[in-house]
Design a protein that fits this description.
The chain is of the alpha/beta class. The protein is 31% helix and 23% strand.
């Protein structure tokens, strides 16, 4: 697994760096920095509406070298000018060709908060992030155990750093692992927690999401070509044809009224998830609980439905 490989390489790297500068020296430097409790990274993500973290990345294991000529400062400044709420800067040097200097220099040139995106494996890296000028650090559940996750989160907070926690699946995200410094009283945090819970419930309830993962028979595009409105629809199927799911994804900040959706059969489509509900932090735009397909051909199919689709909304129907 590539993540384990990167984490192992990171441990080698940090072990070497600790020989150059001791943790005692680095901790003293970090604790001597201004320690604010404003947490600008968290604030940037808590504003009303969608928040954007834009990434400065030279390479990745999957894509290889993305930009040989890498004007990282121009990229960061362009992100800020375009309205980014925060910047994610890769500092991992081997697989992502990142550098500590990228973050240090970016921090001098932009006024929005900067996340140090690296594979944090111990407290030494938290102190490094503080000394670089980062506003936040990344903690990945897959490479940290419960006690490490909690310890590093508390250390980051004590230094005035936010911690962005990355979980990949249900096994990694559970009530037992939830960090006590995670501010669930904040409406958007609470909404995201509830939304994640609904996604996990949906995954458990509908086998079409996992029973045919290795065959085209489990997936069918309804429309992948609506480039003008950047809205995509597809179906996940079961072997027995029951409790299939129709996904409708609006990837834009626009509302699409009476949006036409091609469907595979003349059935009733029952809403099981609307990501724009107020309890999830959305604006509460309503979608009908049941939509019946009409004999209106679309995208080469005989039937279609229509709904009003709010900005940045995912709607899921069972049929």
């Amino acid at each position: 697994m590539i993540l384990d490989e990167i984490a192992a390489k990171t441990r080698e790297r940090i072990e070497y760096e600790m020989k150059i500068e001791s943790i005692v020296s680095l901790r003293k430097e970090a604790e001597g920095k201004d320690i604010s409790t404003d947490f600008p990274f968290k604030k940037a993500l808590m504003k009303k509406g969608i928040s954007f973290i834009c990434e400065v990345k030279k390479a990745s294991p999957s894509k290889g070298l993305i930009a040989e000529d890498f004007p990282y400062l121009d990229i960061a400044k362009d992100y800020e000018a375009a309205g980014a709420d925060a910047i994610s800067c890769l500092t991992e040097p081997y697989y992502f060709k990142g550098s500590d200097k990228y973050l240090k220099n970016i921090k001098k040139e932009v006024s929005i908060p900067v996340l140090r995106k690296d594979f944090t494996i111990n407290e030494y890296m938290i102190y490094q992030a503080k000394c670089m000028g980062a506003d936040a650090v990344l903690l990945i559940c897959a490479i940290l155990d419960d006690s490490e996750l909690l310890q590093l989160g508390k250390l980051a907070k004590s230094l005035g750093l936010s911690a962005l926690v990355e979980a990949h699946d249900e096994r990694e995200w559970s009530e037992a692992r939830e960090l006590d410094w995670f501010l669930l009283q904040e409406p958007l945090n609470r909404g995201m927690k509830e939304f994640m819970g609904e996604l996990l419930k949906m995954y458990r309830k509908y086998p079409c999401l996992y029973t045919i993962d290795n065959s085209w028979k489990g997936f069918e595009w309804m429309n992948a070509d609506d480039k003008d409105r950047s809205t995509y629809t597809f179906v996940r199927r079961t072997k027995d044809g029951r409790n299939n799911l129709l996904f409708v994804l609006n990837m834009t900040p626009m509302t699409w009224e009476n949006y036409q959706i091609s469907v595979p059969a003349k059935k009733k489509y029952k809403l099981v998830l609307n990501s724009n509900e107020e309890r999830f932090g959305g604006n509460g735009h309503k979608i009908p609980e049941v939509v019946e397909a009409k004999a209106k051909p679309l995208c080469g199919r005989k039937y279609s439905i229509s709904i009003d689709l709010a900005p940045y909304t995912a709607a899921v129907f069972v049929f």
